Amino acid sequence: MTATILTEPAATALWHDLVREAQQRGRAPLDDELESYLVFLLMRHLRDARLGERVFAIDYLSALEDRGALQREELRDVGDRCLLIAGLYPQQAQRRLVSMRYFLDVGSRAYGDLADAARAAAAQLYRHLAAAFARMVRVLVEVRRLSGGSDAIDPLSRHVLCLADPAGIAHEFPGAIVLGAGNDHLQ
């Protein structure tokens, strides 16, 4: 038996392939900027053992009290971690009795606030991440499915995700009519 050692470029290529396949299967296309961010996010947090221990709303509020580089780093971490939990580890949210809406709101707000605190070039990236947050969660849900995970999210969470990214309705609920805006009591 021969052991294979993955170099960083090879690991990056594997993540890119997986993310591209997830985009295709989930009918959730990302542009190059979002796709690259997602790949490097997956690589950066691959071994984040404390990911599930966080209380993201508290981390978010704490980050808002900080200033400068520390604030930007903490806001990015909150957005990144919300993205990962919502897309890859939704069972952790279910165990805590926290909805998909919580992660969509806290994560996209963290990226939005980061855009406001960042310099021009970085601000544009983080505004883009905030706007595409639900679409990126959909891609991560597909990554989980492709990796052999069970149906990653429950029907109510799928509904909430479809409301946040309506392009996912046909994929998640083929042939169904999904209740839309004005039905916030269902979220």
Major sheet attributes: none
- Unreliable spans: 181-187
How much helicity do the residues have? Answer: 55-70%
Query: Strand portion, in percent?
Result: under 5%
Count of DSSP helices? Answer: 10
Mean of residue pLDDT? Answer: 83
Q: What overall form do the CA principal axes indicate?
A: globular
Find the count of extended strands (DSSP E, 2+ residues).
Answer: 0
N-to-C SSE string, H for helix and E for strand: HHHHHHHHHH
Give the tally of structural domains: 1
Key words describing this protein structure:
10 helices, 68% helix, disordered C terminus
Structural commentary:
By secondary structure, this protein is mostly helical. It has one domain (10-46, 54-186). 68% of the residues lie in helices and 0% in strands. It contains ten helices and no strands. It has helices spanning 8-26, 32-44, 56-65, 68-88, 90-96, 100-117, 120-131, 133-146, 155-164, 169-172. Helix 1 packs across helix 8 (133-146), helix 4 (68-88) crosses helix 5 (90-96) and helix 4 crosses helix 8 (133-146). Mean pLDDT is 83; it is low at 181-187.
Describe, in short, the structure shown.
The protein is mostly helical and 187 residues long.
Give the SSE layout.
Elements: H1 8-26, H2 32-44, H3 56-65, H4 68-88, H5 90-96, H6 100-117, H7 120-131, H8 133-146, H9 155-164, H10 169-172
Helix pairs in contact: 1-2, 1-8, 3-4, 3-6, 4-5, 4-6, 4-8, 6-7
